[in-house]
Amino acid sequence: MQFNFALLDPTDNLPKCGANSVPLTPLTFLTRISNSYANRTSIIYANIQFTWHETHKRCGRLASSLKFLNIVKNDVVSVLAPNVPAMLEMHFVVPMAGDVLNAINTRLDAINVALILKHSEAKIFFINYEYIDKAKKAIEILMSDFQMPMPLVVVIDDLDSPTGIRLKELEYEQLVFQGNPD
């Protein structure tokens, strides 16, 4: 089988414009897809489904809540969560708020999580409810062994069947609900 790559010749002098040459960052991607495919499904998780329009609004709300919590430009936002809707949203929310995303591998032990929190100087720590015990140990190590202040802690509960598990007063869906979508 032979392929004809002549159609992909970069020297065809096609003038660059918004239709064929736009940098695709997480923010431009989310805006573009929410405008183009607003009613298409973006997330399916158990019995929960969101459209791209809903995802865009949820991300805007959470980014607004981060600003309300005094998470300012270039602050580190750490997340200890598996592949759940909140983790996808965090990949849009954190850049939207002008912050730095620090996604922590869920397979690490508490000592390594604490080391990552220390070195990243995370201002806020999002924790999936399944990893509360590991996070508690990591925070204890961070504060006692490393003499670091405790970051703000937000628990990500299960969207499909909430557990009510909390570590502190902040909960992910409450922050989404309270924020401004615009």
UniProtKB/TrEMBL annotation:
Keyword terms of this UniProt record: Ligase
InterPro entries: AMP-dep_synth/lig_dom
Occurrences of domain AMP-dependent synthetase/ligase (ranges): 35-168
GO molecular function: ligase activity
PANTHER family, per the entry: ACYL-ACTIVATING ENZYME (PTHR43859), BUTYRATE--COA LIGASE AAE11, PEROXISOMAL-LIKE (PTHR43859:SF35)
Family to which this protein belongs: Belongs to the ATP-dependent AMP-binding enzyme family.
Protein name: AMP-dependent synthetase/ligase domain-containing protein
Organism, scientific name: Solanum verrucosum
